[in-house]
Amino acid sequence: MIFTSAQFVLFFIAFFTVYPALKGQNRKHFLLLSSWVFYGCFSLPFLLLLIATTVLDYQIAGWISRSDDARRRRLLITGSVVANLGVLAFFKYCNFFVDSAVRLSETLGLSFAAPALHIVLPVGISFYTFQSMSYTIDVYRRRMSKARTFEDFALYVAFFPQLVAGPIERGHQLVAQVQRVGTSDEPAPDFTGFLLIAMGVFKKVVIADHMAVLVDATYAHPENTPGPALWLGTYAFAMQIYFDFSGYSDIAMGLGRLLGFDLMQNFRAPYSAESPSDFWRRWHISLSTWLRDYLYIPLGGNRGTGLFTSRNLFLTMLLGGLWHGAAWNYVLWGAFHGTLLLVWRFLPNGGEARPRPGALGLFLTGLRRVLFFHLICLGWALFRASSLSDCGSIFSGLFGLRDWDLAAWLKVVKASGEGPYLAFMAASMVALVLVQQVFREGTVELANRAMKAPLAVRVFGVCIVLYVSMLLASEKPPPFIYFQF
Amino acid sequence: MDCRIWPDREHCAALRSLALIVPLLLFFAVADTLLSHDRTVGWERNTVLNALARQATNKTSGVVLLGSSTSADWLPMALLARLTRHRATDVLDAHINGCHQPCTYAEVRGLLARERNFDLAFFGTSLFQACEYRHSKRQLQDALLLPTSDTARLFANYAHASEPLDYMARYLASLTSGAYGDTEVLQDGWRRSLFGAPTAKSWTWSSTVAPPSPPISSCDFTDEAIAYKLAVTAALLDDLGRLSKHTVLMLLPDATLSDPSPVHVERWLRFRQTHEALVSGRNWVTLLDLSTDAAADTAKDTFAHRPEHFRDGIHLSPAGMKLQQALLEKKLAASGVVP
Fold it and tell me: For B36-86, how does the pLDDT look when each residue is reduced to its tens digit (9 = 90+)?
């Protein structure tokens, strides 16, 4: 039941008709039940898994909070982390490790018969596992007290607007909001919710899904794709993944605001970044801050020598890459971003440019952003590749080692009859990147500005955007990319 | 409207909201109606409306032909009239392109609601139609053809589908917006008018190798995959018993008949067995299996089963049409349906 499906619209209308009419604890019961129904629509067995991990983490956090024995607390938190990562490793990485072991044994000339494992990845497991872990760790670190009731914690884990693809919320932020549901402190619904939902739907349905057509055409068999077409496909993927994921995050935030919740902003115009650290302050913010707080800092952060800090940075990015998917191209993508961070660290002033006034400053800023955008795109090429051998085909195509005759390709484009369409898509990509240079705080900034318009204009705007999105929606839309993680 | 001078402030606020919502809804209703009733676009809607128009002008109670293009494009109405010993004007061509069993069910419910009756009903079904082929146009067909009083029956059928909620939601969306089920066709039209029609070489910009031909539509016949269509076909045959004195259920061939692999042989076996089971106990239905000819002369083709007998794997080529027309004539005569 993806957010942009008619099925979800039906679910949300039914939910939103009942929810405001309920008072007190009934409202919370209903929200939890609806969240479980929402997840159960993906898979009933995986709903049971979600509930089981919820019970486990709630229990362990309870024991931790009641204990003053440091050794016992350490034992409990270790148990919790091992259990959570164990479940994640089993469902997400088992096939990957077995396949990798088989390939390694074949390379070494050994015959190794792997057991046939048919493990299906539960939707959203990477997101809710990290969210649940952050709660137990924060209780262990005494940064927050445990949730008052099981229901509060279960709702924190299963809150349907952000359950399957984040933002990965923190206990101290979301549990407090959950505890206010049905009380006199509960915030009123916020109209920006509708604006964010409309913008999110438009981003996903109109922009990302139509960019996906170019991406699929060029990345299906990259060994047969001419170099210029691969560049176009790579730019299209940069657009697709951003508008797909940020669209989802906007809808999640919007739904949250309609229910009186304030969820974390996950994106801030990432293609206006000028350096790797700037990019990670703008891209998938809830994950990058999670990795910073629960991986990079516990590893030692920047408290040691330069070499030690570099190791921590690289390891964090490598594991961040692996978090995205159980495949070597994600590890490579993580390593690529880790390398970018290290290279920038050793640049003068950490790669951060000093602001210069005037036209020259503007030009240099633009140049830096353009260059960094292209580096990000190279990373996306690794991310989108289906295999390591595809990575080779893609990079040889991108860097002119084969099929790189722009004039010949343009002739082919003309003969194919797709010239005007491709030109339109390319111009759209340029425009979409330019918009990010203006609105550097992301969609929330746009929504807040739109709130200044008269109510009638806002309502009309939301309706027209949703109607246009319906008309331009693909009949068989690809699911949100981050659902697979 | 100034609520400070209005005697009842609460009602004033509600009226102000209404004053905003009503014109907005009207605007979208008009825009949607213009889009969905523009006969130059919206192919999926038009094909249904054309069929309804044919029904309205032809008041015959003779013979009705139902189903999708695969059951009609090889069967001229004149031939059907001759084979059933009716006049050509006594045959109603009620087929709708892309109209599988659920759509035919909705169409038959509509005909029943309009108190139509026939001597003989022909309905053809292909193997691939036994599986669900999800598309918003299916629910658009339901919304256009089914009397709204049958919504409970429709949802009972949807309960057998792989995702009943999704079907219900799409149906409600189609009732709300006429353009909803037609967006693919609308987009195709807009794209053509903006960027020109794609050529046969449209793939060349992204690949130096031609893409493989798409596989012939088929159905794997797993129990889950056919549950919905099975339930709907049973309901359809029951309603056909009320619509006409007798029904001829035709099993139609496709190019996968030429595939000797056990997978395809098993599918065809299950296709036939499933429909034999559906017909048994329904004595108003005669099954005509046009996907085989038991009395075939092995030296020459007597039914369409080779790739060259089809133009796209499921629709017949001129050669295939001739074979199937002759086979229908032979099998219909042998069945005793027409005295």
Answer: 776 666 678 888 988 999 999 988 889 999 999 999 999 999 999 999 999
Between B15 and A5, where is the model more confident?
Answer: A5
Q: Which helix (H) or strand (E) holds B126?
A: strand B118-126
- pLDDT tens for each residue of A309-367: 999 999 999 999 999 988 889 999 999 999 999 999 888 777 777 777 788 888 888 89
pLDDT band at A457 (very low <50, low <70, confident <90, very high): confident
How many Cβ atoms sit within 10 Å of the Cβ of residue A238?
27
Q: Which two tokens stand for residue A353?
A: 């440019």
Q: Which of A284, A324, A337, A374 is flagged as catalytic?
A: A324
Residue A171, token pair as written in the block: 């206990």
* Assigned CATH topology for domain B41-191+216-335: Rossmann fold (3.40.50)
> Is A472 within 8 Å of B168 when comparing Cβ atoms?
no
Q: Tell me, what's the pLDDT at B8?
A: 61
Q: Which residues of chain A have a CB within 8 Å of the CB of B135? A: 475
- List chain B domain ranges: 10-39, 41-191+216-335
- Give dist(CA A390, CA A402) in Å, integer: 14
CA atoms of B263 and B144, how far apart (whole Å):
37
A467–B166 C-beta distance less than 8 A: no
Any idea which of B35-39, B268-272, B290-294 has the lowest mean pLDDT?
Answer: B35-39
Q: Do A416 and B186 touch (CB under 8 A)?
A: no
* Per-residue tokens: B19: 């004053």
Interface residues on A facing B, Cβ-Cβ cutoff 8 A:
1, 5-11, 41, 214, 217-218, 220-221, 224-226, 229, 233, 403, 409, 412-413, 415-418, 420-422, 424, 455-456, 459-460, 463, 467, 470-475
How many A/B residue pairs have CB atoms within 8 Å?
Answer: 102
Closest CA–CA distance from residue B138 to any residue of chain A (Å): 12
Q: Are A365 and A353 in contact (CB under 8 A)?
A: yes
Helix, strand, or coil (residue A481): helix
Q: Show Cβ contacts of residue B206 under 8 Å, excluding neighbours closer than 6 positions.
A: A214, A217, A218, A225, A226, A229, A233
Nearest to A221 among B197, B198, B209 (CB): B209
CA distance to partner chain B, nearest, from residue A348 (Å): 41
Nearest to B304 by CA among B259, B270, B254, B256: B254
